[in-house]
Amino acid sequence: MLARLSLFAATAALLLGCVAEEQDRTPEPPEHRIPVSIATSLSRPALDLDVEQAEALVAGDIDSWAALTGQDEPLRVVRADDAPDEAIAAVLADDAAIALLPADRTRPTVRPATVGGLDPLDDDYPLTTSSDRPLDAHARVLIGGDVMLGRRVGANLAQRGDLSAVWSGIGDLLAAADATFVNLESTLSTAGPPQQGSDSFGADPGVLSGMRDAGIDVVGLANNHVGDYGTEPMLTTFRLLRDAGFAVVGAGEDLASAREPAIVDAADVRIGFYATDSIGETPAASPDSPGTNRIDAPPRTGPTIDQTALQRARDDITTLATQVDLVIVVPHWGTQYTNVPEPSQREMARAFTDAGADAVVGGHPHWVQGWEQHEDATVVHSLGNLVFDMDFMRETQEGILVEVLATRDQVLGVRPLPYVIDESFTPRPVEGERAAVILELARQASSPPFDGGLP
């Protein structure tokens, strides 16, 4: 018996030793590199640092803005550690503060500095730190404003013999995004009586090839021009867009189809687009007739907001939020030729974000308009024209693309990309003073924190 016990004890010791040895051999968790975002207040100009400045800031060797901008004022560095939202809140409360946080934990309410001209989510961004987790997958979505490919735009394209020429200035930019949306204010058939006289917009269906080549994925039709030539051309437009491979949102053969969201998968992020129209001219869809997803509202389609239709939209958005990672609502609303949003826009925007929208990006006014922040959701009231022949005032020839950066869990940034529409109706990106003029028009009508500057 003693011999057996001794043998058992020896065997157990040997097994325990093997287990301990095996535990010693357990591999360390892999080390990842996470980009470090240097986040500043929107009230400060965009900051581009060289690598030496960025590294000194992270090391704690800089305590004055003089080393970064030449301004002799104290600088406070707030490290996110495990509380990025608190670090961002510190920057919102104190524009002398800078937050250091993982690039996939930033927010639209602060401005990430570039390092060596590179954004924190660019592949070669040089400022990184070790992490026990990889960088979260993120998608880059571009949203463009009103696109009109008929009237003088269409005549110009026909004269040039290139129906895709209007995209030559920004096509590469659009195509580089993981998903791209535009609002198309043109029918693709004119086989019916014009409903708005010379303001009836019909485009050659051949424009669709250029739109595809420009990387456009989702086409919004919740607007006052998709019905410009009557019912049959409107139905033809729906069919031609879908046959060409576009996702369509905001109008349809009946109310059920007009309410349907467009859902796309981009860079491991599932994105849902939902569109509404509050302008009119195009018929509102009904249970058995085609048209737009209408919410009657001031100033064009009612003295007050149709609360039944607004609640219907809220319910649709809440349902969509359970199906996707990112919800973008694109309303057609407001007053033309002003940068100031209507009270009805603000009320509807609040309803959309309360229902689950992560971003609301509007159109129709033909000027850029102000921005708002509703907790974690950003509202851009109007992007201005993207492609149009309104060359009778400066503001109608200016606009912004909006870039939404998002992971599956949160929106990281909502950024304006300014452009100017040239004499051939082609939008071209701008920087410097011309860009500043465009952004200032939006800033003047924005709410905090965007009243201090846009991202």
UniProtKB/TrEMBL annotation:
Its protein name is: CapA family protein
Keyword annotations? Signal
InterPro entries with a match to the protein in the record: Capsule_synth_CapA, CW_Biosynth-Accessory, Metallo-depent_PP-like
Record family assignment: Belongs to the CapA family.
Q: Which SMART domains match?
A: PGA_cap (SM00854)
| Taxonomic source organism | Aeromicrobium phragmitis
Region annotation Disordered: where it falls in the sequence: 280-304
- Give start and end of each Capsule synthesis protein CapA domain: 140-390
The region annotated as signal peptide is 1-20
